[in-house]
Amino acid sequence: MSNKFKKYSIVAAIGVLLWGLVICGMRSSFQRYPLSVSFAYFCENPFYNKLGVNPVFYIIKTATVAKNEMPAILNEVSEQEALSYAEKELNFCIADTLSPLTRSVVPTGEMKSKKHVVLILMEGMSRVNLDRVYEGQYVTPFLRNLRDSSIYYSNCFSASVHTNHGIIGSTCGYEPFFGTTMMTTEPPIFTGLPYYLQQEGYHTSCFITSNPQFDNMNSFWCSNHIQRIYSIYDYPQSKAVNNFGVQDDYLFEYGLQAMNELTQTGIPQYALFLTVSHHGPYIVPEQYKNRGADDEERILSFADDALRNFMTQALQTEWGKNTLFILVADHGFTEHSKYEMSLEHHVIPLYFCGVGLSPRRINKVASQIDIYPTVLSMLGIPFDNNSLGIDLTQENRRYAFFVSHEHLGCSDGQHFFCHSIQTGRELLYDISNGENVLDSLPDKAADMRSYARNMTLLNLTGLSKGWAQPITISTKCE
């Protein structure tokens, strides 16, 4: 070996080492997941959380952040016009211009004592999945049968198409700016379900299958009234099956034991469970290999069984008999849709279960953003609703509005209006046959267009102006 070759070999080795150090420096960690701003969040105080973040980060972040441009359909109406529309639609009077959506809710108190609250967000569980059949058997028999022992909303829609949207939609009553994430490095602060339950003396926690840094969940929850996050850091490493962590069955097994211990304190508990098994790549256990036509159906069968086992065991415990369970999808599931905007991605099941509730199926329109005000009302907790969600026990909505990356949608379960924010193309479908009836029902299309436009504008304005934080109480119009 010549001296020249040795010299180049040493230079090459040093070069590889230096590049490796640069990559490690960019990741800031030797873990599977790189360090992110979310790692700095450890409490509910935003000032303390930000002390550990490099100030250079904020300089660069400020320079690179681009403002979202409002789609043309939303620029057609002013904020004041939209507020006037909402006053009539939601039957309230604006009492404070700093928080114009805020209105006082007198709860129904359907639950007679202070209940624990368990909210289960089912990954990608479109309502379409409840009708899937394999070899003469339903793929999700538990979820189908649960409709008969629950308050079941058969006409519910998700806020959008991602998990972080489903979390904030269900617990805080707001929808995203189309496809953009809502859990940013500067997490927005909301009132909502965790906030008001914590005010009532509840201990609040979340159970997830993977790393809490995913989607900036850690920073969001630490800033939004969640006291304890159970994650991949709490589970045996042997239980992790892929980058999404543990399977649903172990998540519920662990969560059941944790709830057994938490409820022994005598403090009412709020727990959010976030499932993930029905998210590709699918990890199908061997015993489910013959439970569907493909891996997507097989994992649905597995997820259904995991839910059944958890609910069956939980309802046998003392705490389970004193719990309001809410089961809902974070969003639906993309299929080969006959619509320009995938309706299957937004139609979701919604269940309210608990000892003492009178089971019934309700066909009126419901939205994911209605969960937070409805749960508080059922628990008998007075609150100020500063979202566009409604208390389903006392109010009705004519339509649900929702968004995806490229579309604005609106539906009453019979008709489906969609607007492309890129091309301006509009369609009105008859859901019973999938036909475009825009030309034959112009008044219906105009009504749904107006609803979607006004409500979406107010939703996005509320996000940007901080209306989600409580300021004042308003009253109903006389």
Structural account:
The protein is an alpha/beta fold and 478 residues long. It has a single domain (91-465), classed as Alkaline Phosphatase, subunit A. It is 32% helix and 17% strand. The strands form 4 sheets. Strands 2, 5, 6, 7, 8, 9, 10, 11 and 12 form a 9-stranded mixed β-sheet that branches. Strands 14-15-16-17-18 form a 5-stranded antiparallel β-sheet, covered by helices on one side. A two-stranded antiparallel ribbon has the order 1-13. The chain is globular and about 85 Å long. The N and C termini lie far apart (95 Å). Residues 472-478 have low confidence and may be disordered.
How is the secondary structure organized here?
Blueprint: H1 3-27, H2 46-51, H3 55-64, H4 72-75, H5 79-90, E1 103-105, E2 116-122, E3 133-134, E4 137-138, H6 141-146, E5 151-157, H7 163-172, H8 193-199, E6 203-208, H9 217-223, E7 228-230, H10 248-262, E8 269-274, H11 295-314, E9 323-329, E10 347-353, E11 360-362, E12 366-367, H12 371-378, E13 383-385, E14 400-403, E15 407-411, E16 415-420, E17 426-430, E18 435-436, H13 442-465
Parallel strand pairs: 2-8, 2-9, 5-11, 5-12, 6-7, 6-8
Antiparallel strand pairs: 1-13, 3-4, 5-10, 9-10, 14-15, 15-16, 16-17, 17-18
